[in-house]
Amino acid sequence: MEKFRHNFEIVSQIEDFIESPITTENTKKWKTGLVKWTTVVLHMALAWSCLYLVLHGEVLFGGGLFQLLVLLVCAEVGGELCKLVMLPPLLGMLLAGILLKTCGFFQFYGVYPDLIVISRSLALSVILIKAGLGLNPAVLKRLKFTVLRLAVVPCVCEAFAAAIAAKYFNQIPWIWAFLIGFILCPISPAVVIPSLLSLKEKGYGEDKGIATLVIAAASIDDILSISIFGVIMSSIFRPESSLTMSILQGPLELIGGLAGGCVWGLICGYLGIYDAEWDQTSLLGLGGFIAVVGSHEFGFSGAGPLAAITSAFVANYVWTKHGTVSVEKNKVAENFGKLWTIVQPALFGLIGPEVDFSVIDVSLLGQSAAIFLLSLVIRMATCVLCLLKIGLQWKEMLFVSIAWIPKATIQAALAPQPLDHFRGDPDHPDLRIAKLLFATAVLAILVSAPIGSIAISLTGPKLLNKPNKPNKLIVNEAENNDNHDS
Fold first, then answer.
1. CA atoms within 13 A on the CB side of 299
2. How far from the centroid of its chain's Cα atoms is residue 194's Cα?
3. Is residue 240 exposed (0-12), middle (13-18) or buried (19+ Cβ within 10 Å)?
4. In sequence order, which residues have a C-beta less than 8 Å from that of residue 155 and are 6 or more positions away?
5. Do the beta carbons of residue 213 and residue 143 sit within 8 Å?
6. pTM more than 0.85
7. 325: which DSSP letter?
8. Which residues contact 438 (CB under 8 A, 6 or more apart)?
9. 3 state DSSP class of 375
10. Could you give phi then psi for residue 339, rounded to 5 degrees?
C-alpha cells in the first residue's frame, strides 16, 4: 500500500509539472515556432509551384533557380542555427554559401550572373535605406569633420601598410602592391550596418551618435577605396584608357551619389508628408534599388549605395520635420526592418559562393595573413587617432575601431577581377601576384567578417553607454572640436 501511495505521488508530480505555467509557456513557444515554420514552408512550396508553371525545368533538381532556392533556404537555416548559439546570423548564411560552393552543388554563377547581382543588390539596397533612416541629423551635422577623417585616414593608412607589406614580403611591383592595399581597405557595409543598427535600436552608443558616425563614414570609405582600386586596375590592364577619367571617377561618384540621393530624398519626403506609409516605403525602396543596380550597370558602383543612404536620410528628415513620422516610432523604418529579415539570406548567402577555394594557392596563405594582420592593426590604430579630442571615452574609441574590422562585400566582388585577366594565359608572370591578391582578400573575408560581426555584437553592450537621454554636453564638445579642426 505504501509503495502504491509513493507511485501515485510521483505520477501526480509529473502531471503537475506538465500542467505548470512554465511548461504551458514553452508549449506556446513551440506551437508558435511550428506555425511560423509551417507558414514559411507553405509559402515556399506555393512560390516554387508558381515558378514551375512558368519556368518548368529551371526549378527542378539541377536547374539554376533550384540551386538558388536551396542556397537561400540553407542560408536561412544557417542563420537560425547561429541565433540559437548566440552568434550573428550572417555567419551561418555566409558559411552556407561557402559550403555549397565548395562541395560543388552551387554552380549558379555561370548561368545567371545578372540575376545574382540583382538579388544581392536588392538586399544591399534594403539595409542601406534602413541605415539612412537611422542616421541622426543633429549628430551628423556636429560630427561632419570627424566623419571625413574617419572615412579617409584609416582607409588610406591601411592601404599603404598593406602595400608596403606586400612589396617587401613578396618582392612585387609597387603598382600591384597598392592594388592589394586598396582591395583590403574597404569595410563591408553589409556586415557593419546590421550589427550597428541592432545596437542602436537597443540604445547603445546613442548618447555619442556612434552608429551615425560609423555608418556615414563607411560609405565614403568604400567610394574612396573602390575608386583608387579602379584607377590602379586601369593602369595595369588598360593603359590606353583615359587616366584622367579614372581619377575623376571617385569625386564624380561622391558628388553624384550625394546629389542624386538628396534630390530623390526630397521628392520622397514631400510626396510622403501626408502619412502614406506604404507609398513612403515603396518609393524609397524602388529608388534605392534602382540606384544600386543602375550605378553598377553604368560603371559608377560607388554612387548607388551612397545615393540610397542619402535619399533615406533626407526623406526621413523631411517627414520628421513635418511630423509625419516620429523618432520613437518610424513605421517606414519598421517596414524596412521586416524586409531585411526576408532578403538578408540573399545578401550573405550569395557572398559565400564568390569565395572560390579552387583558385587559392595554399602556399601564399602565410604571406596573405601577414599582409592582412599588419594592415588591420594599422587601421585600428589610426582609427583611434582620428577620434581623439571629440569627447569619446577610450572604450568607445576602441569599439569604433572594432566596428571598422569586417570586410566581405567589396572584396568578394573585386578580388576575382585581376585573375579574370589571366584565365587564358596560365604562364603569365603576374598570375602569381593576382593569386596572392585573391588569397589575401578571401582570408580577409573569412577572418574579419565573422570575427568582426561577433566582436561588434559582444563588445557593444560592454563598451558603449546606454543612457536614458543623449548627452548634449559631449555632442556640443564634439561640435566645438570639429569647428576648431576645420
1. 7
2. 7
3. exposed
4. 185, 186, 221, 224, 225, 379
5. yes
6. no
7. S
8. 359, 360, 415, 416, 418, 419
9. helix
10. -60, -40
